[in-house]
Amino acid sequence: xxxxxxxxxxxxxxxxxxxxxxxxxxxxxxxxxxxxxxxxxxxxxxxxxxxxxxxxxxxxxxxxxxxxxxxxxxxxxxxxxxxxxxxxxxxxxxxxxxxxxxxxxxxxxxxxxxxxxxxxxxxxxxxxxxxxxxxxxxxxxxxxxxxxxxxxxxxxxxxxxxxxxxxxxxxxxxxxxxxxxxxxxxxxxxxxxxxxxxxxxxxxxxxxxxxxxxxxxxxxxxxxxxxxxxxxxxxxxxxxxxxxxxxxxxxxxxxxxxxxxxxxxxxxxxxxxxxxxxxxxxxxxxxxxxxxxxxxxxxxxxxxxxxxxxxxxxxxxxxxxxxxxxxxxxxxxxxxxxxxxxxxxxxxxxxxxxxxxx
Length: 358
Ligand code: NDP
Prior knowledge:
6-stranded parallel β-sheet, binds NADPH dihydro-nicotinamide-adenine-dinucleotide phosphate
């Protein structure tokens, strides 16, 4: 079986072999790893996965400790720490409302964060960097499932264009640096994510946390109906955040030949989609969430609300052909997410609900 090495810099004495998705991997546990954005949905999943796999030498900074939009702070940090591996999961992230209201912040802060990190990682000779983007970088009318080749083949969805353009600039920067400086910088585009630490604010949350909270509240309040925006027919793909983290570690762990096939290609950008390869209608999703939450009332669909794109599914052939696939089914993931929600949100919910019931 092929042996793979996470680090070329760690001490041999701290190597260990463990199993990820059935393959033996030979790893240096003391590789110095910077997870930018470690308290976010993605970053926290990365930290859990790295720790679970025995990595001890993680470098973590909150935004108040290190503002990654600040060039000199970021350069000084990299010059001092010299991480060998960088997971770039820090970003200004938000839903349609926030993107509409603060487009300047979305384009500027994301450009600043990624430019500072990518440039500092190059200067401090990081071995590998994984830049996290999002499927909104692809054209609004890209054919489905969306292949990596769809990049820059058509107009973007206007509501998040500033964010998407910043992310596209990040991909271009990784590609250009790989060509000019022979860096190993890869850009990964995950599909819709959900999992522990998700945002359950009904104003700004994505569909899964919004439906979990809505149905939980409907159950607690003994409501007979839960209303869902739109017709329920659009189809979306969902990936559990721990599966995303697993995929990111898998990519950073790839042997040199396979990693280079992604990053050292003059003809194609160093770009890879991360998803589970299947989608569900919002109606199917709502039914599954009602089951997990234990909401026995009726689901109604408010068809006066917009549906958005009819289908959004990533083509994950590039990733699966390297040997990775998602492990968590939607129903398992929803059960785990609901348990986390109950643990994390109890004080807030009980306060709010007590107020409403009162
Ligand atoms: P979150 O909003 O959950 O987390 C963002 C993180 O970035 C936080 O930890 C925050 O730090 C950090 N951060 C933001 N600004 C700065 C700054 N100026 N300096 C230092 N740190 C900063 O985002 P997600 O985890 O959801 O997203 C991470 C990446 O994954 C993004 O690039 C996003 O596009 C991508 N992604 C997310 C998807 C999703 O469904 N959530 C789907 C597809 C892609 P702090 O906690 O200290 O404030």
